Amino acid sequence: ASKATSKELERIDQLFYTYANGSSGLIDPEGIETLCSDIEVDYTDVRILMLAWKMQAEKQGYFTLEEWRRGLKALRVDTISKLRKALPELEKEVRRPSNFVDFYSYAFCYCLTEEKQKSIDIESICELLDLVLSSQHRSQVDSLVQYLKIQNDYKVINMDQWMGFFRFCNEISFPDLKNYDPELAWPLILDNFVEWIKEKQS
């Protein structure tokens, strides 16, 4: 590695240890909160999730040194002010269709906090939908969240249903739903959602 690169890596590592918990050697939720206030972004801001995606962070609320290096090197930043300035670019990158589907599925996996957990409770799903999808598909997300909160068939949502929501928002004309074909392989929860909308409209 050239001198510049090793200097840069050194700074990236030093930055990590500014936020890391001394005993665990990880950046933990407390460290992430400090990081958030330093980059002037709210803890619940979607850009923090985008940063986690860039690092390919595995555990919600924690960054390892390896993940930190991966993310900051990819963003080409080694100071807090550079990281702050890199966020708009990161957001643009995530919103590219080729990346967004990956980010969207990552968001689900990132929220699986227990070992062997395969699904997420409705309330958390509603928050997550609002966080990751509402800027592009406001009216669909509002309807879907409203439906999820009143229906009683499902207490949790799995990855297949989660990805189905994404496809629905991208492919189905809304609110007329004229190209929705229940014969196609949609998750049942979406068939129910469509029926619910049609009942409301009739």
UniProtKB/TrEMBL annotation:
Domain DCUN1: 7-198
Task of the protein: Neddylation of cullins play an essential role in the regulation of SCF-type complexes activity.
Residue spans crossing the bilayer: none
GO-annotated molecular function: cullin family protein binding; ubiquitin conjugating enzyme binding; ubiquitin-like protein binding
This protein's GO CC annotations: ubiquitin ligase complex
Organism of origin: Dillenia turbinata
The name this protein goes by in its record: Defective in cullin neddylation protein
Gene3D superfamilies noted in UniProt: Cullin, PONY binding domain, EF-hand
BP GO annotations: protein neddylation
Matches recorded under InterPro entries: DCN-prot, DCN1-like_PONY, EF-hand-dom_pair, PONY_dom
Residue ranges of coiled coil: none
